[in-house]
Amino acid sequence: MTASATPMVTVEQLAKHYGSVRAVDGISFSVAAGEVFGLLGHNGAGKTTTIRMLTGRTRPTAGQATVAGYDIVAERDKIKPLINLVFEDQNLYERLSGRETLHFFADLYQAPRSRADDLLELVGLTEAADRKVKTYSTGMKQRLLVARALINEPRVLFLDEPTRGLDPSSARDLRDLVKNLSAQGTTIVLTTHYMEEADELCDRVAFLSQGKIVALDTPRELKLRYGQRSATVLLDDRSEHTVRLDDPADADRLAAWMRDGRVLTIHSNEGTLEDVFIALAGRPL
Ligand SMILES: Nc1ncnc2c1ncn2[C@@H]1O[C@H](COP(=O)(O)OP(=O)(O)OP(=O)(O)O)[C@@H](O)[C@H]1O
Questions:
Q1: What is the CA(86)–ligand 1 centre distance, in A?
Q2: Which domains does the chain show, CATH number per domain?
Q3: Looking at the keywords, is Cell membrane present (predicted)?
Q4: What pLDDT, in 10s, does the model give residues 158-199?
Q5: pTM, entire model
Q6: DSSP annotation of 228
């Protein structure tokens, strides 16, 4: 992350109601330039609706937000050239090739067509560039969607479940790409169901539950706050014990073993974002 003082996204008491459903119910946060910010939560928590508002796809019921310094409602048209998005419901034209797809979008954004080749290279589609999209695998299509979203060199890139349905190696490639984009200064707002992915990629994450933010911090802070800190201790008689570091009785046990010189190894078990999620939402994803 290449942080700068000016936030790229600011959200204040943003809400979206559908009848009696409070899809997003007064959330506030900001995202710094170059930050990777994750929105996490159960199905229906309000993640997609939040991104849909920030990208001008749906109007908020209440609250304010800015993206790249512009108001998402009043200055929506100014935001469009500065952002891009990868959404699950986006389609590719199956009858075009990868290269033709990017040429088409380069024209649309008045970007030079030469950028298409660079992007195909970036997402590893150079060899398949002239094949029709309908022959692409799910992973290749997803990478093409990402390339397409980069055609206008967006300052803020919104990714809704970017690795959903990808095999592990395609997912890894995509995560690496996100990290590189962030390192080059692109601000990224993403949603994901994969806690390990959020942990690896995101500088900060917000947990949404029923349209509200229930926790917002760096993965490390959240893990320390909500995850269970424990250690696995191997003793001289080769017995293994798990001790909870925040349990005074366990701490005493550990201290006694240490004092008696019985401890061979200690491995600390850091909490995971999955633990955080369960602690906050009461049930696993
Ligand atoms: N166009 C709509 N009309 C009515 N209700 C909607 C609409 N869009 C979303 N909702 C409702 O708003 C709530 C939040 O939905 P949203 O899609 O934002 O959740 P999400 O966190 O993105 O979930 P998922 O992980 O399934 O994508 C849900 O209860 C959903 O049914």
A1: 17
A2: 7-224 (3.40.50.300), 230-269 (no CATH)
A3: yes
A4: 999 988 878 888 889 889 999 999 999 999 999 998 889 999
A5: 0.87
A6: P
